[in-house]
Amino acid sequence: MSLSKLHDWSNTRLLTLNAQKCNFVSYGRHADKNYKYKMIQQDRIIELDHEDHIKDLGVIFDENLDFGVHIAERINKAYSSYG
Fold first, then answer.
1. If exposure means fewest CB atoms within 10 Å of the residue's CB, which of 7, 18, 37, 69 is most exposed?
2. Would you state the pLDDT for residue 37?
3. In sequence order, what are the residues at sequence separation of 6 or more whose Cβ sits closer than 8 angstroms to the Cβ of residue 77?
């Protein structure tokens, strides 16, 4: 329900979402990872891709809220700039 409200809100403000670039992450211990989210774009129903982690504002959040992937990326970036 909230995904369709977000889609409607963005369309009324002429901020259309590109469904091909949209994906989702499920957080929580009991999250249903098999649930399919769908968006309507140009009269077509597009199923969104499920990701196990997502980068937002430079921070990588994974579905377990474990920052191991983020820390590993920061360490690799530090090593690459050091060497």
1. 18
2. 84
3. none
The span from the CA of 20 to the CA of 16, in Å, is: 12
Is the overall model pTM greater than 0.90, yes or no? Answer: no
Amino acid at 72: A
Structure tokens at 33: 């990872």
Residue whose pair of structure tokens reads 């129903």 in the numeric block? 45
Residue-wise pLDDT for 17-45, tens only, equals 887 888 888 887 777 778 888 887 778 88
Query: Over 90: is that where the pLDDT of 67 sits?
Result: no
Per DSSP, the three-state class of 81 is helix
68: which 2 tokens?
A: 């191991």
Residue 71 pLDDT level (bands cut at 50, 70, 90): very high
Tell me if residue 27 falls in helix, strand or coil: coil
C-alpha closest to that of 16 among 42, 37, 36: 42
